[in-house]
Request: fold
Amino acid sequence: MPNWCDVEYKCVGDPKEVRSLHGVLEYIDKCNTSIIKNDFGKGWLGNLVDRLGGDWTTFNCRGEITGYGLDDNVLTINHYTAWHEQSRLRETIERVFPSVKVYFRECEPANNVCSTNDTTGMYFPEPYCLASFDNQPEFFMTIGEAARYVSGIVRKRVPFKMKAINNALKGYMRLPGNQDMSYSFH
Reply:
């Protein structure tokens, strides 16, 4: 069983190509059944690879699209994958639509993974991430916002420092009844 990684893509480029990629997602979404038989359903990543002319059998398509939306000229694709962002999926999109650049943010709490290729912070400006197994990741602009949020979880004031936040979460997870909880802060 894999560890599931939440991934968000921001696809930007020539408006015609961005809309065309959006159209591919709409086509998949409107299908009554999956294009290719699989265990994930019609949102399976292999369906997207297939519609883009790629060979889904040659790389890892383990995962599913959970949502997408077009806002001005930015196409957001939310999905989950096994362990980490599947770079070959991103590269396939960029190959088929040469003007499109795909920025991603991935968050997988079991292996303490939370990263992005958005080095400028234009699409993913929040530098801090709190990941857990049972909730969507939370993102924060400041260490203070993160500390206040974690204070609400652990029910005590947490100083505005990375180490203090991590120590508070570790202590909280060790408490009786909390051993099944898992948090990672980045």
